[in-house]
Amino acid sequence: MGNRTIRGILALSLAAFLLAGCSSDKTDNEVNESTAPETMETDTMNSGASTANTAEASAVKPRINRGKIVLPSGMGSADAMEELQGLFYFDFDQTIVKRSGHAELNKHADVLVDNPGFRVRLEGHADERGTREYNLALGERRSNAIAAYLVAQGVSRSQIEVISYGEEKPVDGGHGEASWAKNRRVEIVYR
Questions:
Q1: Could you give the residue range(s) of every CATH 3.30.1330.60 domain in the chain?
Q2: How far, CA to CA in Å, does 3 sit from each of 12, 16, 75?
Q3: Which of 15, 48, 76, 107 has its CA at 20 to 30 Å from residue 88's CA atom?
Q4: 65 pairs with which residues across the strands?
Q5: φ and ψ at 118, to 5 degrees?
Q6: Nearest 5°: phi and psi at 139?
């Protein structure tokens, strides 16, 4: 056989191989003709709605309003917004993040991970019991507990500032357990 014949056979083999790769498998693309128009129309409508919802959701970004983070709520109208709670309370002389606050902290972590330009200040507070120095240290330990939780959820440590006010900035000036419970807190303030 000559070179031309071998080249011809190779060219035909290559062409056949390429055409075989382009052919469709009937079982994968088989369509029931009685439902095809309805299915295709529904799929087209759903994909259009999905694209519109995705575009709306991506168009509305979280924003900072007076130190609080405001998120699109994802429910109802595109104008609906949700302000995340920025207060986390602690038991007397404790620095353990309560399980009841985990869901809200996870939302804050998601915002911070998705928006690396956002920064937060974690302001630790204590009630009036204890010395000034002890309460400053306690407020700092509480802020550090919230910071550690956020970092464990993937937030960059560089996005977090920790500060303690101890007993210096009470929310409630009363001298009973109800007042003290309100003052044992960490506030998340966005900057």
A1: 85-190
A2: 14, 20, 70
A3: 76
A4: 68
A5: -75, 145
A6: -60, -40
Which residue bears the tokens 């369509």?
31
Cα(128)–Cα(184) distance, rounded to whole angstroms?
A: 9
The CATH superfamily of 85-190 is: OmpA-like domain (3.30.1330.60)
**Burial (CB count <10 Å: 0-12, 13-18, 19+), residue 69:** buried
Residue from 168, 164, 86 nearest 127 by CA: 168
Q: Is 40 strand, coil or helix?
A: helix
For the record, the structure tokens of 81 come out as: 């917004």
Q: What are phi and psi of 62, to 5 degrees?
A: -60, 145
The alpha carbon of 133 is separated from its chain's Cα centroid by a whole number of angstroms, namely 36
- 157 pLDDT band, cuts 50/70/90, is very high
Nearest to 131 by CA among 96, 168, 97: 168
pLDDT one-digit tens code per residue, 120-144: 999 999 999 999 999 999 999 999 9
Which residues does residue 122 pair with via DSSP β-bridges, in sequence order?
A: 162, 188
Please, how many CA atoms are within 13 Å of residue 61, restricted to the half-sphere of its CB? 7
Tens of pLDDT, residues 33-85: 443 333 333 343 444 444 444 444 445 789 998 999 999 876 555 567 889 99
